[in-house]
């Protein structure tokens, strides 16, 4: 099982980016896929999660209303649309999968991780 996160980059405050998480070796079905981020000197922070069926999504308060998580069945990807970006959103963003299918904001409850993609928001 391998996850790859991509789509990061440099953007001005107020701008948008779209991250994607692609899986190989299995399909996302029945799993919880989450996005986390980690800024220098800080702990890994939960951002959003989605059940593969798509009927439930979860967001951290810090991104609610600005970020949208979604899945693309055909491409076997989970996407994170990030709008109205702020300098404090600067971090390495990771996607992760939790096999148990039970929503969690705790990073240690996720079983597989992608390598991370850098998002930098300039003021």
Care to describe what's here?
The structure is a single chain. Strand 5 (45-51) and strand 6 (57-59) form a beta hairpin. The protein is globular and about 40 Å long. Strands 2, 4, 5, 6, 9, 10 and 11 form a seven-stranded mixed β-sheet that branches. A four-stranded antiparallel β-sheet has the order 1-3-8-7, with no helix packed on it. It has no helices and eleven strands. The relative contact order is 0.32. The model has no long low-confidence stretch (mean pLDDT 92). The protein has strands spanning 2-6, 9-12, 17-24, 32-38, 45-51, 57-59, 67-72, 77-82, 91-98, 112-113, 117-122. The chain has 123 residues and is an all-beta fold. The N and C termini lie far apart (37 Å).
Gyration radius from CA atoms, angstroms: 13 Å
Mean pLDDT level: 92
C-alpha end-to-end distance? 37 Å
Question: Structural class given helices, strands, pairing?
Answer: mainly beta
